[in-house]
Automatic annotation (TrEMBL):
Protein name per UniProt: P pilus assembly chaperone PapD
Originating species: Algoriphagus ratkowskyi
Length: 276
């Protein structure tokens, strides 16, 4: 009997809340290792099919291209040696079967390294799920059996803070683009301190009368110096003229407790713009 194994679509999901895009849900979606080198992840199977789960690690972080677009960086071996914990972190259990409507607690443990300088170290936790293989294959026409296996990778960040941690931003040139009703602000930034800047940015567009005409908030994770675009949707029929864009960066997010985030005072950047 001929066997056909179809493996369809590997999804890598980065989410703000519980990850439920795949076949299992994950909480929390950002992991902070405690002072003892321990953290927990809760994996839940909300479906009706047992899931085979594998927990692995890979160094990576959100970066950007020259246009300020978000890109994930997974091949930076130099920074992996300096900041990565994927060689020191372990998961217990690492592989398991998760029954329908059940939850499994996965303990993460980071081996201590007393040689580390103060700062924040990190990796990505990759949780792979696929339906448990059936013992008996389904027979279809002409004696051909099929087995369809959907495999999902869900990836979340894990951080370990060592010693006194600080973060902040400094800004350099800012590029402004306007097209199709969107104002795109691309500041060049430099991260300062010894930790990534994890938080949010509020962008506000004000007219010459100091009236707010547009506002947009988004989360940011700025690990290393670069560019990161902030977009504002402009009101229809906005009048041409001189405006100001006010960017306020804060180390707070609705999905992460403030006690976990490395704190910084709010950072404000004001840019004069011309709307045509």
């Amino acid at each position: 009997m001929k066997k056909i194994l179809l493996v369809l679509l590997i999804f890598i999901a980065l989410a703000k809340n519980d990850l439920v895009f795949g076949q299992v849900s994950i909480a929390p979606t950002t992991i902070f290792i405690d002072q003892n080198g321990i953290a927990s992840v809760f994996i839940t199977n909300p479906g009706d099919t047992p899931q085979e789960i594998n927990v692995g690690f890979m160094f990576g972080y959100p970066g950007n291209d020259e246009q300020g677009n978000l890109t994930m960086m997974y091949s930076d071996s130099t920074r992996a040696k300096l900041f990565g914990i994927d060689e020191r972190i372990r998961a217990f259990p690492r592989t398991f079967i998760l029954a329908p409507q059940q939850q499994q607690t996965v303990r993460l443990q980071v081996r201590p390294d007393r040689s580390l300088a103060a700062g924040t170290y990190f990796t990505r936790v990759k949780i792979t799920s696929n339906a448990q293989t059936a013992n008996v294959e389904e027979t279809v026409q002409e004696g051909v059996s099929t087995r369809v296996n959907f495999k999902f990778d869900q990836v979340i960040a894990a951080f370990q803070k060592v010693g006194a941690v600080t973060t902040g931003l400094e800004f350099e040139d800012v590029q402004i683009d306007q097209a199709e009703g969107v104002l795109r602000v691309v500041p060049a930034f430099k991260t300062i301190g010894n930790s990534p800047f994890i938080g949010s940015v509020m962008a506000t567009l004000k007219n010459a009368k100091n009236e707010t005409v547009a506002e947009q908030s988004q989360t940011v994770a700025l690990y290393f110096s670069g560019k990161r675009a902030v977009e504002l949707k402009l009101p229809e029929n906005i009048a041409s003229g001189d405006y100001s864009v006010i960017l306020v960066y804060e180390t707070r997010r609705s999905d992460i407790p403030s006690t976990d985030l490395v704190q910084s005072p709010p950072i404000t950047k004001i840019i004069a713009v011309r709307i045509n």
